Automatic annotation (TrEMBL):
InterPro entries according to UniProt: Ncs6/Tuc1/Ctu1, Rhodanese-like_dom, Rossmann-like_a/b/a_fold, TilS/TtcA_N, tRNA_thiolation_TtcA_Ctu1, TtuA-like_LIM_N
Required cofactor names: Mg(2+); [4Fe-4S] cluster
Cellular component terms per the entry's GO annotation: cytosolic tRNA wobble base thiouridylase complex
Protein name, per record: Rhodanese domain-containing protein
GO biological process: tRNA wobble position uridine thiolation
Domain of life of the source: Archaea
Gene3D superfamilies: HUPs (3.40.50.620)
Binding site for Zn(2+) 1: C3, C6, C22, H25
Transport as UniProt keyword: no
């Protein structure tokens, strides 16, 4: 088959909208869609400093690549989780990705920072749970300490659809009330604005963009991700998408239209400053400082 817009051989068949595209026209389509997503949800402005959290994987690498190409002021942060060879390889990929882009890369290593890597803490809490807590705290405080206007993550349409479905299945209304393409800045800027530029693009499209543009990335899954329920929900949604193209985007857009239904049940919890680090907390000590047993705040300010 040939590209819809030229005579070159098709590189990808899009199922929604239905069309064949060559690498050049697919790249244009992808970048235009990211640009429209940013504008539709008023994610970021041209003068804002953006911190892209890069894992070494495809989604964050593509996010950094497209934002840089669209002219945004981008720097990157990689959080080395201390998970053996997996984390070592992920850091190397992140370094190469940022060198290719010509953007600054900042690296925080969890084992050096906190004494133990992810998976090495004796706790009843699931590994993925405290890993998420740790990553969110680090990238938010790093962004706050260094004056970034927004944090961009590589969450794509598949991630969002599976998250919504998982929380609907369990009626986690508080999570459903907070989900979306943009999380505004709160608590006098100590909770930095978070944005998801790939919000309306599927995982398949992200992989295709990386291939079309020669972006190398870590393909190995985190060892702790095996058996995660989100993978099961993704498989269900993929099966539905194959039968009815457009299922994922229509599901997510429908959720956004009805999100106010969940917001009415959101319990208003007054945030306060954590006694240890001064960051927003629901109690006297924030979840991060309590879990890691911190007695002094961590200073992420870039020096030199």
């Amino acid at each position: 088959m040939k590209c819809k817009f030229c005579d070159r051989p098709a590189f990808i068949k899009l199922h929604y909208p239905r069309m064949y595209l060559c690498p050049e026209h697919f790249t244009e389509y992808f970048e235009r869609k990211v640009k429209r997503t940013i504008e539709r949800y008023r994610m970021i402005g041209p003068d804002e400093r953006i911190l892209v959290v890069v894992s070494g994987g495809k989604d964050s690498a593509v996010t950094a690549h497209v934002l840089k190409k669209l002219g945004y002021n981008v720097e990157c942060l990689h959080i080395n989780l201390g998970i053996g060879e997996y984390s070592a390889k992920s850091e190397e990929y992140a370094k190469r990705q940022c060198e290719t882009l010509g953007v600054p890369l900042h690296i925080v290593r969890v084992r050096e920072l906190l004494g133990k890597g992810i998976g090495e803490v004796r706790t009843r809490r699931p590994t993925c749970s405290y890993c998420g807590l740790t990553k969110r705290y680090i990238f938010n405080k790093f962004a706050h300490d260094n004056g970034f206007d927004a944090v961009a993550t590589g969450h794509n349409l598949d991630d969002e659809a599976s998250f919504i479905l998982a929380n609907l299945m369990n009626w986690n209304t508080q999570y459903l009330a907070k989900q979306g393409p943009v999380t505004p800045s709160q608590f006098n800027g100590k909770l930095v604005k978070k944005v998801k530029p790939l919000y309306e693009l599927t995982e398949r499209e992200v992989v295709a963009y990386a291939l079309a543009n020669g972006i190398e990335y870590e393909m190995e899954e985190c060892p702790h991700a095996a058996g995660a329920t989100t993978l099961e929900y993704k498989a269900i949604l993929n099966g539905m998408e194959e039968k009815r193209p457009g299922t994922k985007i229509n599901f997510v857009k429908g959720y956004l239209r009805k999100k106010a239904l969940f917001e009415t049940e959101l319990e208003e919890t007054e945030l306060r400053e954590c006694r240890t680090c001064g960051m927003p907390s629901n109690g006297e000590v924030c979840s991060f400082c309590r879990f890691w047993g911190l007695e002094e705040p961590i200073d992420f300010r870039i020096r030199g």
